[in-house]
Amino acid sequence: MKILVADDDAVLRNELAGLLREDGHDVVGASDGGEALCLVERESFDAALLDLRMPKASGLQVLHRLRVARPETAVVVITGQGTIDAAVEAMKAGAVDFVEKPYEVDALRRTLQTVQEEQRARTLLGVPAAEGAIARVLSDAATRKVLLAVVGPRAQPPTGATLVLRIDEEVHPPNVFAANQLSQLDAAIEAHIRRVERPVVYAADLSLLQAVHGLEDMKAWVRHMNGRCGAKGGALILASVDRELAEQVEKDSVPSEGLQAMLESLANPIRRAVVAYVVASGPVAYSGILKKNFVDSSSKLSFHLQKLQSDGLLAKGDAGRYVVTEAGQRAWQVVRALSDRKPPSLLISKS
Asked: Domain containing 313: what range?
């Protein structure tokens, strides 16, 4: 992962960065909140470790900016003595977890593993990808030389495309196709997909194809290409597509708004484990959940239980015992059904 480490304590910041680099992460350091704010405006990060107390801007201020500028970045706050309440407030503002100083290396690694699991689960559960996530998919594909672009006359291919197939009024073999040559275009795409691992197909401006073949055939084409890419662990990215096509594709692939919010909540592995336990055991008291050691502090457990209640997955029943709501049961059934599937490979860019 690419990780931002923001801490005004140079010794702790450098030690933490060194440990993360040893684990194979790409680490960028910031010596205060002001530098962190500048970095998040320029670069995209998979995760950010933010000290809550920094000069120029607090960790909470950086978190609020990340939620706007880089919503795909998972934020873990670093707390010192007496800042646990602030850390819980940060989690309510969108942080996924917090670690305490002096931090334990194993605990920190577990936290980052939780971040990675949540990011994978968000993909599995169909949480829409942010533009930063799409940019990383394209960059990775270009580096691996597996990026194929299919573009209409008004679109440009992304940087690093290994092969560009164009759709235009005039045919120029072997890489420019007329709109009525969909079978030939598909054969060229299929040849690329067959010879690479985790292929990424970037499709932009499909207006000519849609004009000739119609909306329903284009939806079928998207489903087919999505399936072919997904079967090899890759992705289909739609960009600059007709608004009606984009809306129809999203309608077919995204759950209802209420269910979607619950699935997003269950993307977090801690909350998923708590719901699984309550589903399996029936009504259970707080002390019973705490004994399962899903988290390393009661503060974190209290936060996650509050989150599950506010998201409509858990409720308190008789004697204050936690129970799974009817809506939570439905969401849990969806999660269980999706757990055996490969992650969906369709990403739609809004730009």
From this structure: 257-338
